[in-house]
From TrEMBL:
<comment type="pathway">
    <text>Lipid metabolism; fatty acid biosynthesis.</text>
</comment>
<dbReference type="GO" id="GO:0003989">
    <property type="term" value="F:acetyl-CoA carboxylase activity"/>
</dbReference>
<dbReference type="InterPro" id="IPR001882">
    <property type="entry name" value="Biotin_BS"/>
</dbReference>
<dbReference type="InterPro" id="IPR001249">
    <property type="entry name" value="AcCoA_biotinCC"/>
</dbReference>
<comment type="function">
    <text>This protein is a component of the acetyl coenzyme A carboxylase complex; first, biotin carboxylase catalyzes the carboxylation of the carrier protein and then the transcarboxylase transfers the carboxyl group to form malonyl-CoA.</text>
</comment>
<dbReference type="InterPro" id="IPR050709">
    <property type="entry name" value="Biotin_Carboxyl_Carrier/Decarb"/>
</dbReference>
<keyword id="KW-0443">Lipid metabolism</keyword>
<feature type="domain" description="Lipoyl-binding">
    <location>
        <begin position="81"/>
        <end position="157"/>
    </location>
</feature>
<keyword id="KW-0276">Fatty acid metabolism</keyword>
<keyword id="KW-0092">Biotin</keyword>
<dbReference type="InterPro" id="IPR011053">
    <property type="entry name" value="Single_hybrid_motif"/>
</dbReference>
<dbReference type="GO" id="GO:0009317">
    <property type="term" value="C:acetyl-CoA carboxylase complex"/>
</dbReference>
<keyword id="KW-0275">Fatty acid biosynthesis</keyword>
<dbReference type="Pfam" id="PF00364">
    <property type="entry name" value="Biotin_lipoyl"/>
</dbReference>
<dbReference type="InterPro" id="IPR000089">
    <property type="entry name" value="Biotin_lipoyl"/>
</dbReference>
<keyword id="KW-0436">Ligase</keyword>
<protein>
    <recommendedName>
        <fullName>Biotin carboxyl carrier protein of acetyl-CoA carboxylase</fullName>
    </recommendedName>
</protein>
Length: 157
């Protein structure tokens, strides 16, 4: 199932009177719930929230929780290093707080697991870790950019 099919399912679910929806395949499980404070997806890896991203405006009163299983970080090999891609849809933050310095800058040496940036989805802050030791060769998003699933965020060489 690709991300467009998941988005279509989310749209149909949001417009329906259903409170919960679950679907299991050999690849994993996908669940949606309109009930608050509930774990929605339980893949072998981690549980991450996905939201239809808009400007970082307040979420509507009738907001619904949505989650899909994703890999923590997907890597794509390139000539300038490996691209770290977004595991979910959300708003990218390059620093932990407005008055703090950025997590990383071009030319910085990073260690595997070091936080590169944060992606906010449904008011949940998801840290994006470095998949390996290396040097940051490019940062491909700006602070508070809306990022898509699979979008390249940072390159590490």
């Amino acid at each position: 199932m690709n991300i467009n099919e998941v988005k279509d399912l989310m749209t149909q679910f949001d417009g329906s009177s259903l409170r919960e929806f679950s679907w299991r395949t050999a690849e994993g499980e996908l669940s949606f719930s309109k009930n608050k404070n509930k774990v929605l997806a339980t893949p072998a890896g981690s549980v991450l929230s996905e939201a239809k991203a808009s400007a970082p405006a307040p979420i509507s009163e009738r907001s619904t929780e949505r989650a899909v299983e994703t890999e923590l970080v997907e890597e794509v090999a390139t000539a300038e290093g490996e691209a770290v891609t977004s595991p979910l849809v959300g708003v990218a933050y390059l620093q932990p707080a407005p008055d703090k310095p950025e997590f990383v800058s071009v030319g910085d040496t990073v260690k595997k697991g070091q936080t590169l940036l944060i992606i906010e989805a449904m008011k949940v802050m998801n840290e994006i870790p470095a998949p390996k030791d290396g040097v940051i060769t490019e940062i491909m998003v700006n602070a508070e950019d809306v990022v898509e699933f699979g979008q390249e965020l940072v390159r590490i060489k």
